[in-house]
UniProtKB/TrEMBL annotation:
Species annotation: Stutzerimonas kirkiae
PANTHER family listed in its UniProt record: AMINOALKYLPHOSPHONATE N-ACETYLTRANSFERASE-RELATED-RELATED
Matching Gene3D superfamilies: 3.40.630.30
Coiled-coil stretches: none
Protein name (database record): GNAT family N-acetyltransferase
Domain N-acetyltransferase: 4-140
Pfam family, one: Acetyltransf_10
Taxonomic path: Bacteria, Pseudomonadati, Pseudomonadota, Gammaproteobacteria, Pseudomonadales
Domain of life: Bacteria
GO molecular function, one term: acyltransferase activity, transferring groups other than amino-acyl groups
Length: 140
């Protein structure tokens, strides 16, 4: 992969790519029920797309209160620092918006990834959509 780009997505225009990635990762791979994956906050969120050339391979969203979520990278591009580049773009946009505190709900297996980006675990482990999670916070 030699042409990684991260850009802010348009929920309407980029909806097909955003849905394709989230459905592949969360609904198909992790068996998250579709009714839990899609919510009213999508229309108001700032969405991000990671692209390899012009093919969308990852996504994330940022809510107006600093909540980061729906971070997903397609299987074939994992381990190539796509998630890190995506998260750095989300954090930079949050800080540009004046959101010095960002938070997220992380799958337990991904906590080290988020810790490397400055997030700290602030909760006990709990189940969400049948998957172990923890709450994490980053103070900018």
């Amino acid at each position: 992969m030699n042409d990684l780009q991260i850009r802010i997505a348009d929920w309407s225009r980029d909806n097909g790519d955003l849905r394709r990635i989230r459905e592949a990762v969360f609904v198909a791979e992790q068996a998250v029920p579709p009714e839990l994956e899609w919510d009213a906050e999508d229309a108001e969120a700032v969405h991000f797309l990671a692209l390899d050339g012009d093919y969308a391979i990852g996504t994330a969203r940022l809510l107006r209160d600093g909540h980061i979520g729906r971070v997903a990278v397609l299987r074939d591009w994992r381990g190539l620092k796509v998630g890190e580049a995506l998260m750095q773009a989300v954090i930079a946009e949050a800080e540009r918006m004046g959101l010095d505190r960002q938070y997220l709900t992380a799958q337990v297996h991904a906590t080290r990834f988020y810790e490397r980006l400055g997030f700290e675990v602030v909760s006990d482990e709990f189940l969400e959509a049948g998957i172990p999670h923890v709450d994490m916070v980053r103070q900018g």
